[in-house]
Structures are given as C-alpha cells and as structure tokens.
Amino acid sequence: MDSFRDLVVGVESFVPLKDGSFIKYINFDNAATTPPFKNVMWFINYFSEYYSSIHRGEGYKSRVSTEIYESAREDIINFIGGSKEDTVIFVKNTTEAINKLSFKICSQYPNCVVLTTEMEHHSNLLPWRFRFHIDTVRTDSCGRIDLENLEKKLKSYYGMVKLVAITYASNVTGYINPVHEIAALCHKYGAKIFVDCAQIIAHKKISMKNEDERKNLDFIAFSAHKMYAPFGIGVLVGDKNSLSSGIPDIKGGGTVKVVTDDFVVWDDLPHKEEGGTPNVMGVAALISAINTLNYIGLDKVEEYEKRLLKYASEALKDVKDIRFYCDGIEDKVAIIPFNIEGVNHNDVARILSEEYGIGVRNGCFCAQPYVHKLLNLNRSDIKNIIRDSDITKRPGLVRLSFALYNTFEEIDRLKFALEEIVKKYSSI
Ligand code: PMP
To answer: What are the GO MF terms of this UniProt record (predicted)?
Structure first.
C-alpha cells in the first residue's frame, strides 16, 4: 500500500534552508497538527457560497447551514461508535472540551476525587487540578500505565472517585492505553471514564460502545486540527444525563429557551452548552475530514502507519548515540521520542529544520510530568529547570510523529540527516 499522499495539501512544498537553497519539506510533527485533506479545503471553498449563521435564520442559506451543522452530530456518533444516549457538543478544541467537562462534573460532584495519570497532556491535567481533589495514577519505568496502581487508588478512595481522566494514546510515547479494560475497572468502583482521544482519532478506529457494556467509554474529546481539518473546532461527546445538569460554563446567545429580568430557562443539550454563534464552517470541515477517513478506512491507515513506525524504529537504531524512550512497546501510534547523546534536543530540532528541511517538535510537549519521569529527573532537577532562564537549555526530547501521507523515503532522509548531525555536532 502506498502512502495516502495525494489526499493531503502541501506535502510537496519546498522550504528555504539556512544556506538559501530550497528543499522539499518533510513534516514529522503530525501529533501537533496534521495538514488538511485536499477535499476538506475544497469543501470549505464550495460551502463558502452557501454558509450563513444557523438555527434561527429562515433564509435558504441559514437552513442549509443548520442542516449541515445539526446532521454532523449523527455522523460523529457513527464515527466514534457512540450511542443514542450520547450527545455531541461542539467546542473549540480538546482543551476546551475537557475544561467544559470538568465544569460539569464539578457542578454535579463538587467534593469528589478525580484520578488522572502521569502520562497526561497538560490539557487533561490542569482543568481537573483546580476544581477537584486529584490523584495521579503511576506509570512504570517504560511509561506504561500501571493498572494495579489504578485499581489500588480506586479501592482506597472507594466511592469518592467519580471520574478517571486518561488519554487513549500518549502524545509523547504514542503508547496506547487499554481504555476499555480501564473503563471496566472504573465502572466496577462506581467511577466514570473520560478518554482524551486527541492522539488516537486520526490513527485508529475507536468505539465508545463495547460489546460488554461495562467497558463502554463515558466521555471522549478530540480536535479537528489533528485529523486533517483546520483549527478551531473540536468535540466533547458523552452521556446526555451526565452532561445535562447544572448551568452552562459559557452563558449567552443560543443557550436559553426563556430569559426574563429575573429568571432563565436553559435550552436542552447540546445547544445549552454551545454559547455564542457556532463555528459552522469548522463543523463542515470536520465532517468532510471524517468522510475522507471513512473512505480510506482507518484500519488501512493504522496498518500503514504501523509499517512506517517499524521501518523508522529499525532504521534509526543504526544512528550512533541515539537514545530511545519506551523502546519495544507494540501497541502504540506512530510516535518516536528520542535524544542524541551530546546534542541538546533543541539543537537537533533546529538543525533538522535549518539544514535538512525536516520539521519535528522538541521539548516536553505539554506533558512535563511524563517527560520529566522518562528523563529520570528529580525534584531538585526540576527546580533548577525553573531557575534557568534559557528555555532552550531545559531538558526534553525530540519527537517524531508520523501520519498517513509520510513515506519510507522521508524516513531515509531523516536517518541520513541524523547521522550527519551526530558526525558534525555530537563531539562538540
Ligand atoms: N491531549 C493530547 C493528548 C494532545 O496531544 C493535545 C494536543 N497536543 C491536547 C490534548 C490538546 O489539544 P488542543 O490543543 O487541540 O486542545
């Protein structure tokens, strides 16, 4: 199977190097954002003739736009294997979805315990930290979730844990959590589960429902910009009953049935939770991306990206002085974190860009507790990090993250570039 290169915008772009020459760009930073599909951009262009503000407009364009916006909810439920009991709330991105969910859970269970894990992105850590008593499930030395530690915590807080918030796939190591097994464990102890799907959604078919209903996922969230659609739109999906109580976090136009001087009757879900003029174009683009992923088949995407991952892992082993993290884990999305002994991660990323036209990300990827643990840093190391004003000298990793349009030849070019970097810079 060839890569799905023809479907994606910008994969043949040339970019300038430091010496003034131009080279074909390689993007290995897809965990941050993927480029859009060509037909998503085509659809945005086409729909721009018809779009209009939705819901209360009786004009033709308002009705067409409302239809596209509202019917998208069912397409999303089908795409993520949700059920009729679930509602789809459109938000800006995963971060906003998690903040919204934390507001909802807090209004229902203000004194409860929320469990997160050491592996989380800050977006699935900080929204919980300031509203709840939180505790953190440990990872092992390789970065995997410690399920025994999870069960121990569920037992010791018996009945007080109302939610476990965990990522489906790590944005640092790519490691995939056994979320349905974890769901069964949460439900056994009376907790619900929220799964951050930002890193899985474009790489593997997911299903909130499971044939064993104890393993169902209660809430999920993801962002369109990590699945070949533009920025500014994401979703929170979850059980209507849990999301319907309380007042909305964002109050304003579109959220009410009645307002008088002294009382408010809130609208039903999902409108109550979508304050302000909705991002109709974003939703249309997201659905176009979902249709394209359905057309390609996520099983094929997963299989192709696994081959890229295997090829890269094996090829890069030959690079002298490379150090991998979480080596040997089978069940992961196509992400490789690494360092080169003797060359700062920031320099590796900069040189790859300036001298070889290869885009990667470096640092802690908004997952500092996890990266610090992978790097074996202790508290005093972390205090020193805070003191050091030069952020480029802070500890971190280089991250490669592949997507369906990357190729084996691109990985060969990366290997060549890393070998050159080791030769030129690692002894300085
Ligand atoms: N969770 C994970 C695992 C992520 O990788 C990211 C983005 N890097 C987020 C949450 C936040 O996504 P967004 O910035 O689109 O809100």
So the answer is: cysteine desulfurase activity; lyase activity
